[in-house]
Amino acid sequence: MKWIDSHCHLDFEVFSDQRADIIRRAGELGIEKIVIPGVMAEHWERIRSICREWPSVLVSSYGLHPCFLESHEEAHLEQLDQWLGEHRPAAVGEIGLDFFIEDYDEDRQMHFFREQVRLAKPHKLPILVHCRKGQDLCLKVFRELNYDQGGFMHAYSGSLQQAERCLEFGFKLGIGGAATYERSRKLHRIIRKLPLDSFVMETDAPDIPPCFARDEPNTPLNIPKIAGYICEHTGREVAELAQATTENVREQLKLAR
Predict the structure, then answer these.
(1) pLDDT at residue 30 above 80?
(2) pLDDT number for residue 256
């Protein structure tokens, strides 16, 4: 079986001493590609360098994450526009809205999110969306900007109705470690209800560890076992999940086979 980890922060320093080993072992497990999203401007060059070192496996994306607002400057939006044109990543991201964190600034989050969605359109790139407690506002932005490039709703946590709206805008829903927990019944119902062409696999490594490794940094190596737990909870077949989610990533990001 072949897999793609559609959201993994493999550039983070926690992986510095084990990055090469993780990539090697991931290949042995059938993990063909790993998508690395950028969260702030100062990380973009690091991501670009790492992806150039393993070009057949690693896939770059550049963006300004809503949880790092204190690091973002208005000039970074212009810089992002230049990066997208010069370096042609697979997507724009990780971008979005997070109203779960303390003392969030909704207006500033909305500004950076809206402007990055706006930038993705002329570059004809999909977006990797981080969204907690803001699904309806994300959908509002997509509608107002007539956004039609699709992308991934990372670590999907909304309702079934909101999921269906995301699919109408061309998005796929990211599922990973959170879906391995017995308590994630709402997410399990969504996975059972929607067709498999609605989903992509992800880890968000080193974050969102699965139930079987909850006290450890998450890694792409957990993807096959995460899939097994998801299938146990939802009645899906592992081979079908692997085939569908891998093809979904390839299609959305226009990745070569």
Answers:
(1) yes
(2) 79
Q: Is the dihedral of CA 121, 125, 126, 129 positive or negative?
A: negative
pTM of the shown model: 0.98
- Cβ contact 210:177 at 8 Å: yes
The Cα 150–Cα 248 span in angstroms is: 11
Quote the pLDDT of residue 63.
98
Find how far residue 98's CA is from the centre of its chain.
14
Q: Is the pLDDT of residue 17 over 80?
A: yes
- For residue 215, count other CB atoms closer than 10 A to its CB: 5
In this model, does residue 1 exceed pLDDT 90?
yes
Query: CA distances (Å), 130 to each of 64, 86, 143, 158, 196, in order?
Result: 10, 24, 17, 12, 21
Query: How far apart, in whole angstroms, are the C-alpha atoms of residue 174 and residue 155?
Result: 5
Tell me the H-state helices in the chain.
19-28, 44-53, 74-87, 106-123, 135-144, 160-168, 185-193, 223-234, 238-253
Question: Edge-to-edge, what's the strand order for the sheet holding 199-201?
Answer: 3-5, 31-37, 58-62, 91-98, 127-132, 151-154, 171-175, 199-201
pLDDT at 257 over 80: no
**Cα–Cα dist 164/170, whole Å:** 10
pLDDT value of residue 211 = 98
CA 1, CA 57: separation in Å to the nearest integer? 16
- Name the burial class of residue 167, with classes exposed (0-12), middle (13-18) and buried (19+) by CB atoms within 10 angstroms of its CB: middle
Distance CA(196)–CA(215), nearest Å, equals 30
- Give the three-class secondary structure for 56: coil
SS (H, E, C) 151-198: EEEECCCCCHHHHHHHHHCCEEEEECHHHHCCCCHHHHHHHHHCCHHH
Q: Is pLDDT of 68 > 90? A: yes
